[in-house]
Fold this sequence. Notes:
Shape: elongated
Distance between the termini: 193 Å
Radius of gyration: 69 Å
Amino acid sequence: MASCMRDRGRGLAALVSTITTSISQVRQLRLREPILSSALQFHWPGHLGVKAEQGRWQSLAALQSDVALGYPQVYAENILITFQKLQAKIIKKELANTRCQMVADITILFLKRMNPQREVEDACTSVLLALGSHSIEMVIDMLLYDIEENMMPPRSLLLALKELSLRPDIDSYRDATWARILSLLRNKRREEDMLLLCQVLHGLATGAQDLLDDASLQKEVTNRTPMEVATRAEETLQVFFNHQLLGSKSKVAEEALETIGHLFCLLSVENLESRVYWLTKWFTTLTSTAVRPLYMCKCLCGVLKALYRSKHGGRKVQSWAEELAGILLKQMSDKESQPPALCDETETLSLRAFNLLSHLCLDTTVHVLKRAITAEEEPTVLAALEAFREVIHGAPQAETLKREVLASVTSVIQKDRRPVRMALVRFLEALGQRDYLSLPEGRVVIDYLLKLSQWDSSDEADIGLMSLKVLQTVSLPVLISMLCEPGNTSAFVVLSDTATEVALREQSLGQPPYLSSFYVRTPEFVSPQHLLSHLVLYAVKPYRENTFGVSSLRLLQALGPITALRLVASADVDQLWSTEIPQMLQMLYEHTEKSLDQEEWEDRLLQFYSRSLEAISDDSWLEQQTVTTLERIENGSDEEEQKAFLYKFFAFTLRTSSSPDLVRRMLSAVLNASHEEPQQREGIAVALAIVSLRHLRVALDQLEVYGANLTDKDRSCVLTLTKEHQHREWGLVCSTVYLSYRKIISVTEDALSLPLDSILALAVEHYGHCIEEKDTTLTLAYLDALTQMTSFLGERPMPLPCEVPHKLDLVASMVELIRDEPLGRISSPIRQKAMAIIADVRNLRPVLDADSREELLVTCCESVLCLPASEGLAEEVSNPSEGRANVGLFSMTMQSLRSLLEALVTEKPTEIQSCLELLEMWLNSRNDHERERAMWCATCLLGFTVKMNNFQVETPFPRLGHLVRMLAMHCQDPVDGVRSLAAEAVYNLYRILLLQKQMTRETQGPLEGEGTSEAYSPHSFYDNTIQIGKVFAEYFTEIQLCDLVLEAIEGLTDDKAKLSLAAAQLMNAVIEERGRDIIKVEAIVEGILGQLNKNLEARTEEETLQAMCSLTGSNTRAVVSVLLSKPWPWDSSTLAMWKAFGAQRDTILSVVQLFTDILEKKRSREDAEELDAQPVAVTCVLCEMLSRSLCLEAVQQNFPRLLLAVLYHLYWVTEQNARQKMAVSREEGTLDSESESFDPASCALEVVKLVLAAADERVVSHADDLHCWDLLSSSTSFHTWVMDLTRAMVKTCDPSLLHELMALVQKSLHSVDEGRKILARAVYAQLLWHPSVGHTLMPQSLGTVTEWFKDPHISMVEISLRGITNLALYPELSEALGRLVPYLRGFLSAEARVAVQALEGLQNIMKHTRDKDIQGMFCSICQHLRPLISDVCACSARSPWEQDELGLRVNPGA
Length: 1454
């Protein structure tokens, strides 16, 4: 211990020595230059003796003396370090009291003389604080004894006193210190001085207050302390209030204010009120001083705290309480005069002050705050709301107070200023926590909170969350009641989620279920039935506002059994809900609004509700539920989707009931409910349908009773109204009735259980009422209502298995309505709706008979198709909008007509053709729009037939040809729209026929033509009648084919060129495809000839002739026979037809073959007297035909036969010596005398030339050279001419052709027909001239020729000799021919022609005979040559014609 003390002494001695040395040096140098830092270094010698230490301390007096001389500029850094070391020594208690006193003396002396600044001053303050903590008396002595009375103490000393005044050990010196400071304050005028003194006073007051407040220090407080403190506080307040300069300095005033708050806590109770009054007066002097609100609040908080502690709240307090509250609000609202941190502290103090004030004067405080929250200044309102919130926390909650507060809050809410919202919500939270919002006046607040909670903007998110939190303070019954109010739909999610949270919170706290908690207490809230219907109803659109469904179901589950109050099967309901509701929630979580099947979801809700009702199983509960639901229906405040669901909700409730009486009463009620809107009527009908599933008979009975309003004048409340209201109400009731019937029919599986006939009988009766009234509006209302029911009947896929006789009456009624409509204008949709109704009952039996169907179709088509064109309909009225409405109505009417036609086909598919044919009247109309409409109907009807795909039973088209012609003709209609529709109609008809063909085949193998439907389209038939004919040809029967052609013939003379051409093209195409199957060819030919005589259009005539060619090609004999049978002279049409045959190869081949047959026909001798006209006509036709190239080809193919046939005909006409002039044809308008005439023989000869020219032109040329054509003067020279002509053929024609010719003539060498025999033998004899032919027939030809010698006819002898002559050219036969010389020699004396021919034969024989035999032969004939030579000489002067007649002309080839 002694060692420690020695060390401390040595250190202090060193310190003192250093300070002394430094001051001496300062004195010597007068601080002209800085002292070296080493001179002031702090030295701490390790070991000093006791004497040395004492010496060092003795030098302290010198230090004091130096400081007293007043050298203030001691080097700061060294001094700072010195004082810091001293502070450390003192704090560590390393100095004794005496040493500390010495430090105190030197420090106060240093402060007084040197006036240090900044760090050095702070260091001095720290040393003083350290000394005060060691011994506070030292520092107090400095103030009291070391400072002159009127001198201002050093700043460091005052700062140290401020801190030390908070220490309990100052209590002994507090009074003296306080008195000293007050005396100084009274006389000071400098702001800095006053501020320091006030700070010391603040510390003294605070320390005194802490001492008095701290119970642990009470033992140190003497009895005199409170009195002394109160006295000093009183004096201090007097100084503050009276010191005017103090109040003008802001910082001084702030420090004084802070001190005043503590001073008031020190005052005696009897002086409090008066001093408060002084304070309020003094505050007025501070208005011009920039005093920060924080210090005002500190002051007021202290004052109010003192008042609160004194339990003093008399009348005087109430008198200035309002003023204090106003001051506090002003300070709270001032956010601009101080930093945010101070603002927060100010607000905290203000709230504390208001809390205290409310305990003193609640009414006054509330009054001030109510007024403040309705002020215009937003900062004031914000401050007032925060203060009000604090006041409400501690105030007693009287009903009067609550209502007053809510009234003021309502005015704030009405203004709804955005900057105030958050503060307002926090205030509302305080109100909610104290059950303010349960009052009726609280509804405004709740509505406002709901509004705030639904804001989605990010800057309002905190307010929304806070609002939700406040809403959770509302009682559950109030939340539920508001949730069920119609006007709170937009807040449904917020309310339901809030109610869910509240309910779950109450359940977690063990409170009873929701229903049992408040229903017994008050009946003003919603019933369980209302709540159940409301929650289920709002779950219909589960994704509305994103979470409607989830919120509803979660709340329903959180509220517990809905039947808890009634104690009816609550356990079953609870079990059901605990299973079903989570499943439905999961369903919503797994889907979105787009992916959720709305219909399935509604059905799930209804099933859930139905099962809940079954679990309840209480008719009284159900009755109340239906009444509640019906009331909500009649209220009509729900949205459209909810209204529709509400009717289903009502119906499911009734369906669950087992009481027919309840069902009857409720159905009657709902039927008599409002049905002004379509949604209401729809809902009533749906409800009846649902109830009918279990109570069908009851539903039908009630509907029948309700429907009596339409007809029963005795009981009807409708028929007793005025006409204007009666018609409207009649229509509404009618609509409800038929719509209900429709819905009931739609859900009833057993159709036989429905009285359909009675329903239709009722409809007919209602029709009678409409006719009686003769009111268009009423009729339309009736039709609209009836359509609602019949439209569903039309949707039945199969006919009902029952007879409904009144269907026919209903159809007749509708036909009557249609007939009564004007034809020239479309004034109302009556005809359209009537046709729709007829179409709708198509599935009911019985079906219409043929007459009724025809009457129906004619009436409807006439009523619709004959209406003016669309332009005319629009121009009927002056208003353009009405014109457009007329056009739209007409479009709907056409659709109804289409549906009617389709209905008739559905009803009886076999009558499709009759329906189409009834349209023909308008298809042939001269009005373009009528044709287009009729064709549209036909197209739709055929298209519908295709879509029906009902071809198990073949749809008959008995007049298919007529139908195809009817449609095909219009594929070339002048109107493009008609053409397009006709093409589509034809295509649909083709598909029908193809499908029928496919259905009737016996096996599933490849079907001829199958797949061709893909190759065609409507475009294939557009403006292409030829294609139509080709495609449909295979489907016609023979009769249909004939009918088509005959009808097409009739259309050839149509006044529209395109249609006449279409008829011709159709006929031509069909005949090309199926010409062989055509019957009644003669009638067709006659018809075509007749039409050709009527001057057809050029292209039509051309197509017709082509058709005739095609017909001739497949029916050659029949056509040619008709043509040939035409009497001469032929008209131009017949002749043109003959010429046209040469345009088609197949036709000309057939015709040529037939002509060949005709020419080959044997002529009998009995007919010789009368010329057969047919062969003559054939030759005339051939003359016309054989000029075409195709005819030449046909001739080439039939050359041998045709040539022989024509030659045979030539022989015949020459044989009969026909007249030279025969009229064959004439032009129209000319006389018979002017007709073109032909010589039959010349005509036949011309044909021979044409035939030969077709085979080889050289034959004709060679024959001309030989003058063959001149030899035909009579039948006697015919064989000679034929042989010469054959000779020309032999010289030019191909050998194969000659062989064919030889093969043909060989068959007729022995014909019984003289002419045919002569022709054959003549050709045969001359063909032997050709080497190839001769060599081929050489073995038997000689015998054949020599046999002809036996024929008595001279021409045969001549032909035989010609044959011998030609055979003599072959050396191989010379020997055999030589034996014939004696026989031939006898012919030299016969007729000249025979003799000449015999001579030629002998010449050729001798030419090819051996030399030794020639002399003998010549000698044997010489005596026979002399007469011949004489005759030749005599004839040499004759002309060639005379020589031919005499047979003396020598054959050049001989």
